[in-house]
Write a structure and sequence with these properties.
It contains four helices and 19 strands. By secondary structure, it is mainly beta. A hairpin with a 5-residue loop joins strand 4 and strand 5 (92-98).
Length: 308
């Protein structure tokens, strides 16, 4: 090999060696004494995730759902936040994504409407937070969804009878109790008359009874035979109903609808604890009455549930 070629190879070898050294390669094939360690990404943190509930510790199906809690990413940003909800039947609805693009996100800024597909009862909300390195953290919270419909009110009343100075005539539209004199003046409003069974009814004194004004007039109860209007209210004692669980007027109406015409009476005799459903003559109101007691001397207590 001539001197020119030797010189050429020596220069080429030197350049390659320099390049390897410059780029950090170990020509001897040994390991570096010090190696860089990759820093692990920290997942987003979720603190105190909860659903905002009403005074009854529930959420209204017609309201906007609000949330509480904080999401924080200590080494980057919270990229996306998603909340989904599942009911007891297994139906899941996606409430949507938000993109905070910040290190901290307050969940009070996230709101959503209640999906119509959800069944009333306990709901499970799943929160998913994703950071800017696509690391995910999840958390869950629960809340009870109310039954949709027209809310009902409850009122406890004390009803007098033939022996009592208390009123015994009830207006189911506003749950007002009238004395006999006032009832005659307002006879068109009276839907039922309570009796502890007057002697001429042929029943035992102390036995509770609810009459329509028309039925009561047949035995001249509290002078109802002289009233200008004698409404023919229909009633039935029903069983298998959780009185306290009824929250809407639609639920009450649903209890009345399947009752056969022949089972809708103008006189019922409930015992303490019984539930009576009644419908006014004009059909404008269906209410529930839970009988609490009759004291045997002419008074009875009952809780009425319906819309005012």
């Amino acid at each position: 090999m001539d001197i020119f070629k030797k010189t050429h190879y020596l220069l080429l070898t030197a350049l390659v060696a320099f390049g390897l050294i410059f780029t950090g390669c170990d020509l001897l094939g040994g390991d570096d004494d010090e190696e860089e360690t990759a820093v692990a990404n920290v997942a987003p943190g979720i603190t105190a995730f909860a659903v905002v509930k009403d005074a009854n510790n529930e959420i209204d199906p017609d309201s906007v759902i609000s949330f509480e809690g904080i999401i924080e990413d200590s080494d980057g940003k919270v990229k996306t936040v998603n909340i989904s909800v599942t009911d007891t039947a297994g139906t899941t609805a996606d409430l949507g994504d938000v993109s905070p693009d910040s290190a901290i996100y307050n969940l009070s800024a996230y709101t959503a409407n209640v999906p119509n597909s959800l069944k009333p009862g306990e709901l499970t909300f799943t929160l998913t937070a994703t950071d800017d390195k696509d690391t995910v953290t999840t958390a869950t919270a629960t809340a009870t969804l109310q039954k949709g419909g027209t809310p009902v009110s409850t009122k406890q009343v004390e009803l007098g009878s033939w022996q009592s100075s208390l009123g015994s005539s009830l207006d189911a539209d506003d749950m007002t109790v009238y004395t006999s004199g006032a009832a005659k003046t307002n006879s068109s409003k009276i839907d039922i008359i309570y009796s502890n069974e007057a002697p001429d009814s042929g029943q035992t004194i102390g036995a509770n009874a609810l009459y329509s004004p028309k039925q009561a007039s047949l035995i001249k109860l509290v002078g109802s035979d002289t009233w200008a209007t004698k409404n023919e209210t229909k009633m039935k004692i029903i069983t298998g109903v959780d009185f306290d669980a009824i929250k809407t007027q639609e639920e009450i109406v649903a209890l009345w609808t399947p009752i056969a015409a022949g089972d809708k009476k103008q006189l019922v005799r409930p015992s303490a604890g019984d539930i009576v459903i009644l419908k006014t003559q004009d059909g404008s109101k269906v209410v529930l009455i839970k009988f609490i007691s009759g004291d045997g001397i002419g008074t009875g207590k009952a809780v009425i549930k319906g819309t005012l």
